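<context>
A single protein, sequence plus fold
<entry> Chain with its tokenised backbone below
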Amino acid sequence: MRYLRERALNERNEKIFKRNFKNPLTNLKKSVIIKIQNKELKKKGTSTMTNRDFYNAVINANINEEMTQFATDAIAKLDVRNAKRAERPSKAQIANEPIIKAISEILTDEPMLASRIAELCEISTQKASALVKKVEGVQSVDVKVKGKGTQKGYFLA
């Protein structure tokens, strides 16, 4: 009796296993499948189609006047939305404004290394190097540093 029960359970489990693992992708989440498909597309040298690409394809296909007009209007809406987005500064740009002002106050006509600017502004050297380039009227020159080689020095012109 016990043998028959175990055999029935094994057969049932095999059926469930075969049903669930017939296609290994059936158990993956949809997002994982999409990621796999995107990786395959990138390997082939293609990428996913954007809305703009789709609407341009509809316009080029010239299916009928109504669809062409809809696609043209949709592209115009995309342009308006992108223009609004470009006007507005990002959160990072807003956060960096006071740092850029502080850097402009620190700089003189003498070359100063990004590491020194970072010390004075209490930020990382990489951030200082990136933000000093956004200050108006800044020029760079190569400065020889003992033990470190040549580094860029920044100064106001």
Notes: The beta strands are 112-113, 138-145, 149-156. DSSP finds seven helices and three strands in the chain. Residues 22-29 have pLDDT under 50 and may be disordered.
